[in-house]
C-alpha cells in the first residue's frame, strides 16, 4: 500500500474510503432514524473501496486513480445529505481526499477537483435547507483544503525530484565502479606478464622485488573483482562466496605478506584452528582492517583469531586514541569519513563481507586503542 504509482494510490484511497464506510455504520447508533440512508452510504463506501483495491490501476495510466477522488466527493455529498445536512464528518474527509491526491497527482488535478469538491459540500447543505452561515463555511473550508493540498504536493514533488537525482547519482557511481573494475584488468595483465618475464632472468635482490610486485598486482586484480562483487551486493542484495575449510594460521600469514615489511603487525593465531570462509574475501577483510589500524591507530597492530561458543572470531587491534563518540553510529557506513579521524569505505566493505559469511562486524573499545572484531560461523561439523 505504501509507495508511489497508480496501484499504491488506489490502495491508499481504498483504505481511506473503507474507514469512511465504517464510520457511517457507527453513525447508525447515533441516528437510528436514518438507518436506510446510512446503510446506503456505507454500501457505497465499501463498494468504492473494493473497486479501488481490486482494479488493475496500472493499466489505466499514471493518473487513472484520480477518478476515485471524484467518486469520493460524490459519496461524501451523499453522506452529508444522509446525516441531515450535518457536515462535521464531511469536511475532514474532504481535506483527507485532497491530501491523498496531493501525494500522487500534479497541481492541475488538484485545481480541477475544486469545483466538484465544492459542489459535493454545498449541494447537500442546500437540499437540507441549512442556514446561509453554514453554507458560507465552504468559503473557508475549500481554500484551506486547496492550500494544504498545494503544500503537500510541492513537498512530495521535491522529494520525488531528490529521489530521482539520487538514483541518477547511484547509477553513475555503479557505472563508474564497473568501468574501473573492468578497465583495470587489461593493464594489470600486461604488468603481470612483464613481471613474469623479468622473474625468469632476475638475480639477487631483484627476485624479492619482483615477487613483491607480482603479489601486489595479483591483489589489485582481486580488489577489482571485489568491486564488481560489491556492486552486485547493491543491486542484488547478496554476494556469492566460494567457501572452504582453510588453516587460519596460513590464511593470516598469506594476508600479512601484502603488508609493508616495516609495519609493526603481529599475528597470534593457533595453528590448529580451521576456518570455513571464502579465502579471497577473508583476506580482503583482514587487509582492510589492518590498513585502517595502521592509518588511524598506532602500532603495534595485533591480529588474533580465536574460537569460542559463539563461533570464530577475528580481531584486529591497534593501540591508538580509539574512535570518537560521534563516529560510532556510522562507523561501518558507506563513506563514513569524519575529518582526519574518519573512516572511509573500507569498513563498509568489511561489514558486507562479514554479513555475507553469516557473521557480523563490531568495534570494541580497548585501553588504549580499539579492536575491530569480525565473527564467522564455526566450520560445519565442529562444535
Structural summary, described in words:
It contains 13 helices and 7 strands. It is α+β, with helices and mostly antiparallel strands and 383 residues long. It folds into 3 domains: 6-166, no CATH class; 184-236; 243-376, Heat Shock Protein 90, CATH 3.30.565.10. The strands form 2 sheets. The protein has a 5-stranded mixed β-sheet. The protein has a two-stranded antiparallel sheet with strand order 1-3. Helix 3 packs antiparallel against helix 4 and helix 4 packs parallel to helix 8. The two termini are 45 Å apart.
Q: Could you tell me the radius of gyration in angstroms?
A: 33 Å
Mean pLDDT: 83
Distance between the termini: 45 Å
**Spatial strand order of the main sheet:** 2-4-5-7-6
Features:
383 residues; Heat Shock Protein 90; alpha+beta; 61% helix; 5-stranded mixed beta sheet; single chain
Produce a short descriptive summary:
The protein is of the alpha+beta class.
Helix and strand arrangement:
Layout: H1 6-30, H2 35-54, H3 66-82, H4 90-104, H5 107-112, H6 114-127, H7 132-135, H8 138-183, H9 185-201, H10 205-236, E1 243-247, H11 248-256, E2 265-269, E3 274-278, H12 279-296, E4 301-308, E5 311-317, H13 346-356, E6 360-365, E7 370-376
Parallel strand pairs: 2-4
Antiparallel strand pairs: 1-3, 4-5, 5-7, 6-7
Helix pairs in contact: 1-2, 1-3, 1-4, 2-3, 3-4, 3-6, 4-8, 8-10, 9-10, 11-12, 12-13
Amino acid at each position: 500500500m505504501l509507495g508511489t504509482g497508480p496501484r499504491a494510490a488506489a490502495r491508499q484511497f481504498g483504505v481511506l474510503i473503507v474507514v469512511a464506510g465504517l464510520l457511517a455504520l457507527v453513525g447508525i447508533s447515533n441516528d437510528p432514524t436514518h438507518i436506510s440512508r446510512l446503510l446506503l452510504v456505507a454500501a457505497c463506501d465499501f463498494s468504492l473501496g473494493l473497486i479501488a483495491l481490486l482494479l488493475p490501476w496500472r493499466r489505466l495510466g499514471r493518473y487513472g486513480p484520480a477518478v476515485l477522488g471524484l467518486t469520493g466527493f460524490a459519496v461524501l455529498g451523499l453522506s452529508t445529505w444522509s446525516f441531515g445536512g450535518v457536515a462535521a464528518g464531511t469536511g475532514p474527509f474532504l481535506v483527507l481526499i485532497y491530501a491523498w491526491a496531493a501525494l500522487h497527482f500534479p497541481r492541475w488535478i488538484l485545481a480541477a477537483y475544486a469545483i466538484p469538491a465544492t459542489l459535493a459540500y454545498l449541494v447537500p447543505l442546500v437540499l437540507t435547507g441549512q442556514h446561509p452561515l453554514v453554507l458560507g463555511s465552504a468559503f473557508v473550508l475549500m481554500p484551506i483544503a486547496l492550500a494544504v493540498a498545494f503544500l503537500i504536493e510541492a513537498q512530495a514533488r521535491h522529494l520525488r525530484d531528490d529521489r530521482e537525482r539520487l538514483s541518477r547519482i547511484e547509477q553513475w557511481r555503479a557505472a563508474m565502479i564497473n568501468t574501473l573494475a573492468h578497465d583495470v584488468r587489461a593493464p594489470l595483465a600486461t604488468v603481470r606478464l612483464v613481471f613474469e618475464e623479468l622473474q625468469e632472468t632476475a638475480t639477487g635482490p631483484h627476485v624479492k622485488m619482483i615477487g613483491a610486485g607480482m603479489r601486489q598486482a595479483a591483489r589489485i586484480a582481486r580488489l577489482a573483482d571485489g568491486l564488481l562483487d560489491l556492486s552486485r551486493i547493491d543491486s542484488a542484495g547478496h554476494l556469492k562466496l566460494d567457501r572452504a575449510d582453510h588453516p587460519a594460521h596460513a590464511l593470516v600469514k598469506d594476508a600479512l605478506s601484502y603488508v609493508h615489511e616495516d609495519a609493526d603487525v603481529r599475528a597470534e593465531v593457533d595453528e590448529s584452528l580451521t576456518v570455513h570462509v571464502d579465502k579471497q574475501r577473508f583476506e580482503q577483510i583482514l587487509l582492510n582492517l589492518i590498513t585502517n589500524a595502521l592509518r588511524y591507530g598506532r602500532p603495534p597492530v595485533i591480529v588474533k583469531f580465536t574460537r569460542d561458543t559463539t563461533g570464530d572470531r577475528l580481531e584486529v587491534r591497534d593501540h591508538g586514541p580509539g574512535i570518537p563518540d560521534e563516529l560510532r553510529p556510522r562507523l561501518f557506513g558507506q563513506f563514513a569519513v569524519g575529518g582526519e579521524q574518519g573512516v572511509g569505505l573500507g569498513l563498509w566493505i568489511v561489514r558486507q563481507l562479514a554479513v555475507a559469511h553469516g557473521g557480523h562486524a563490531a568495534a570494541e573499545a580497548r585501553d588504549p586503542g580499539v579492536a575491530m572484531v569480525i565473527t564467522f560461523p564455526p566450520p560445519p561439523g565442529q562444535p
